[in-house]
Amino acid sequence: MIACFLLCVFGYPLIAGFLNTAVVAFSNQSAISATANSSLTFNYFKDFFTYPGVGKSIVLALWVGLASTALAVFIASNICQVLLLANTTTKSSSRVSKLIMVFSQWMISFPHVAFAISLALLIAPSGSLLRWLSPWLTGFERPPNWITLHDPYGLALILGLALKESAFLVMSFLSASSQIPLHNYQQHGMTMGYRPAAIWWKILFQPIYQQSKLPIFIVLSYSLAVVEISLILGPNTPPSLPVLVWQLFTDAEPNHQLIASAGALILAAVVILSFASWLFIEKIIATCFKAWQFNGRRTTSLALGRTSAYIQCSIFYLIIALAILTLIIMAFSWRWRFQTPLPTQWQMSLIFKTIKQTQPLITQSIILGVSTAVISVCFVIAVLELLVASQSKLLSNSSVGLMYLPLLLPPLVFLVGVQFQFIQLGLDGSFTAVLLGHLLYAIPYVYLVLKGPWLAHDPWQTLHARLLTGSYIVAFLKIKLAQLKAPIAYGLALALAVSIAQYLTTLLLGAGRFATITTEAVTLSSGGDRRVVAIMALMQCSIPLLGFFIASRFYNTTATRKQAPQ
User: What is the pLDDT of residues 166-175, one digit of tens each?
Assistant: First the structure.
């Protein structure tokens, strides 16, 4: 009963927020003043569809979401193929495998906003990439009049989303590979004479892909409904659908805020349409490549081979490395002419000045992030411990579905309604409102991290400790928590990173009065000093990186104890 109550506490804001958004969209009154006598109307939907550029925005959102997710899946599959080949070849390849793993884990902790800013500074017409290539290769003596950012087709946005989300899919694919007899499949494929690349694409990829369908849908939903990265890299005329809904909601005209509620529901419908489109395209591809998969050939084409996978992975990681290098150089630069590959003058004073000016934002972000991490981990531990005690499959399956709900739904669908609910409760714009909003996203990720290790823990150890100590609390603290401190530390670091990366949640529930380092970085990216923007992005990513560095110490300590002689 207590576990059910805790799950209801978590699910209430999601359901209430969605219902409040629907009340605004279908009612002739706002959510605050709506009553039982409010009449049903579709006027706000009609007004939204007649808004200029809505049709192009919907098509653009579908294109960006599907294309970026497909590219992220392709990148992740090539990286996993390299990891597979590295584990079956030389020691040097094994070192490459470990390096790729560390880099992928590090990329997960890198905030989306910071990565989008670094990529924008790299590929801009006056960005570092053309500075390094000019004038000796391009012949440009000044920045060209190219549209590399905010292009009408969203190519920069697709590239940024694909590169960032590929790290998440790599870890999802590797986690899924542990649920299939991977070693047996490899041995059977090698026995029948299949080359390693053919083993991956013809034997291993399909079962791993089927196990990773839900993470792929999470990436697809996020790519289609993201706002902050679209503001930095995406098109402006017209903007993508989530940006258009966000602009309507933040408009000073009250009627536009009501139209935005209808737009939020349309955004949810577009996300569902994207899921259906993905499944339809997936069936077409599976049908077309079924004959190729079972044609008996032991090799693959050059585009899917081992050398091609290494080249593609090198290109992907080179783009990421150059983007991060650009962020660092821009933060420490003072004068950087277009024709020079590096700044002619460097500085540290602007960094100290920016840190001093933004110290309240940094402090507020850290307090909010640490509070979110501690509360979310304690909440998830309580839920998992009660689920283990209840041994109810129905409750366990319901908890999984509920935890995935905020990751699959667009944020605007229920955050708008949650804000209306907080206005009624008098919590709008407070620290408590922002904290509760961050918990809605931090708790699902912590739950996904802790569920596997928690359920895999041997219950007999805790039972023996209870018999010896006579206390459940002592056995729980000294045995179970002590043995699971590594995943708990990782869950804390992940919750901290999720909290630091929140943009829409902070702005909506904070009513624009609660500023963090992320909201300030997005604001400055639209027209601020590039050096200050780079410094803000570095400060934003340094907080979660520090958290993951501390969490890695627990993993190293645990691994050392396991390897120590008994």
Answer: 999 998 898 8
